[in-house]
Structure formats: C-alpha cells, structure tokens
Design goal:
Layout: E1 5-8, H1 12-20, H2 30-36, E2 41-45, E3 50-52, E4 60-66, E5 69-74, E6 80-86, E7 91-92, E8 106-109, E9 113-119, H3 120-129, H4 131-157, H5 160-175, E10 184-186, H6 190-197, H7 201-213, E11 217-220, E12 223-226, H8 229-236
Antiparallel strand pairs: 1-2, 2-9, 3-8, 4-7, 4-9, 5-6, 5-8, 10-12, 11-12
Length: 256
Amino acid sequence: MKQIASQMTMEKPDLIQFIQSCDPYSLLSHHELETIHPKVRILTIEKGKSIYLPGHPSDQVYLVYTGSIRIATLMESGKEFTSSLYHVGETFGELSLAGEMARVDMAISYERSVLISLKTELLSELLKQNPLFTLGIMRLIGARRYETENRLLQFFYAPVHSRLAKVLIHFANKQAKSPSSSPIQLRLTHEILASLAGTTRETTTMILNRFQKLGMIHKSKGNIFVKDLQSLKALSLNQSSPPKEPENTLTLTHAA
C-alpha cells in the first residue's frame, strides 16, 4: 500500500485556533501553540492511502483536520482488522509519546483527509514543560486502552446485536451536534462495522436490516442515520428484546 500525501499551507490564526479547540491541546497556552506553529506540517491524504504502516518509525502524532482515518491491523490471513476510526478533531498515533518506537498497526485514510502532523520530539518537550498537557495525554492513552479492553470483553460475552448497537452508539455520540440531535448521520460501511463489532459482513447487514425495521436506524446510500439512540442504548444493555439474529459468528479461544 503506497503512501501518498501532499503538503498544504494554512493561515496561522486558523491553525492555532483549530488545534486549541481539540483535546488535549486545549491545555496548551497560546504561547506554546505559537512556538510549535512553524514546525507543524499539514498533509492531504487521498482516500485509501496510508499514513503509516507496521514497522514504520513512530515519530509523529496526528490530528484530523478534515475527513476520517481508519486504524487497522494486518492479520496473518492477509485481511485487515479495523480497530478504530477517527474523525475531525481527534488525535491518533499518540503511542509514540508512550515509548512506541515502531508502528504495530496501520493508519489509512477512510476518505480524502487533511491532517496536522506534529513531531513526537516536539510534543515530548511540551510534556516536560506543561504538567496539565501531560495529564491530558495520559488520559487520552488511558481512555483508548480502556476502550480496547472493553471491546475485547464484549467479543467474549456480548451477543452480536449488542456489540453492533454499541459501535453505532459510540460513533453517534461523537457525531451528535447536541444531546437531542436526531437523526445522526454516520458514514460507516457494513464492512467497517463488522470489523469493529467482531462479526461478519453478512451478519452485520442482517442485524442492521432488523434495526431499520424496528425504527432505530435508516440506511441510505452508504450512510446510516441513527433515529432512536435511546432504543439502541437499551438494546446494547440487553434491556429490551434483541432482534432475531444468527448465533454469534465470532469464535475466540482462550490461551492455555
């Protein structure tokens, strides 16, 4: 998979304002942001192109300015397992700040995206100078780890419809402009949803069709519109009768 990126420029006030509006960079002072501005790179990544691959040096942290980025792991079978999807205002590649020397996963542009690239060395200096920023980065890494561990537990114990509902809830909460927003538009393919929920594309399509019949979502031209977030939440917690579905298609074995 080739890396294709082009650099672009952005007005200084716009760039600083955007970075400061995103966590955990909101914990940086205006002076600190002014200092790092000359060293920031703005990259345009075409759809389907990689930002980094396994084995590449882990020396950059990225902030999504436009578009979305898919984080995936290459399985022994050659298939890609999508573990995360990041949208505007979200950071990825942050493990370079926690001692990661080389990437273990891959970052791929889910759509044409513009990224803000920050050198790990530069951010490491800010971590030394700003304890609040250090705490913010620690919270980010901790939250990501908790999310990963929780998803693994769901693979073992939660039924497929519950896992799929939780994935939809996760992205709906991030995309909603307000707590009462409805419907909430999600640009997620069935394949990506299947990977995030730990099931097959066929099972995902079957359950999404059931969700649609129940009035929880609406599917249209590659988009999923969440219409009834509360019902999805109830379903994810097994507080309502689950839709009819095939048995869990994901088989995991416990290590001896």
